[in-house]
Amino acid sequence: EYDNLDLSKGKVIAYFNTKKQIVEERDAMFYRKNYGMKGNNHLVADFYADTDSPEKIFMLRDLDDEDSINGKLAYYNKDESISYVSDMKNGRIDGQKTSFDKGKVAAVVNFTNNLANGKGTLYYKEKKYAEANYAYGVADGDFTLFYPDGSKVLTLTYKDNDVIKSQNFNFKLQKTGIAEFDNLDLSKGEIVYYYS
After folding, report:
1. Residue-by-residue DSSP string for 101-137
2. The model scores a pTM over 0.90
3. Which of 25, 52, 80, 129 has the most C-beta neighbours closer than 10 Å?
4. With bands split at pLDDT 50, 70 and 90, how would you rate the model's confidence at 170?
5. Radius of gyration over alpha carbons of the chain, in Å?
């Protein structure tokens, strides 16, 4: 629905400063266009005033209330590249939020009432490099790091944001170029300190 929206159309309904307060056009950092009703919501887009490029596209139940954002919210960088897309309910992220870096998926995290809740996956160069589990905004469950080949590096198990267990897999040290470090046999040595 947003991909096919002709952004040149629509009616300007307000001008805003950086605090999202309504201002005169000459003082605006952003402006908002209304594209009509879609079901019970208004389809609107906010634009950067200095470049006329979109900042975000979203659905509002009430044009005067940012807390009434419902449905998909697409947020853009000033260069018009996509920053993130999230499911919204009553102005809060509720569902999946997908973040992008240079047009590629960087993270997919589930939210409930604006708090990370459930599974989150992070990507680097289109490959999964971490998975995490959250319970209402705090780490809870396994957090796993991956090598580019998909094999596990490390899993930390969290309970109420505290690490309760750690497990290493296939540990591979990256070469440093320092012979004393690169030739070190880590299986040898004496334990001199434990910490928690």
Report:
1. ETTEEEEEEEEETTEEEEEEEEEETTEEEEEEEEETT
2. no
3. 129
4. low
5. 23
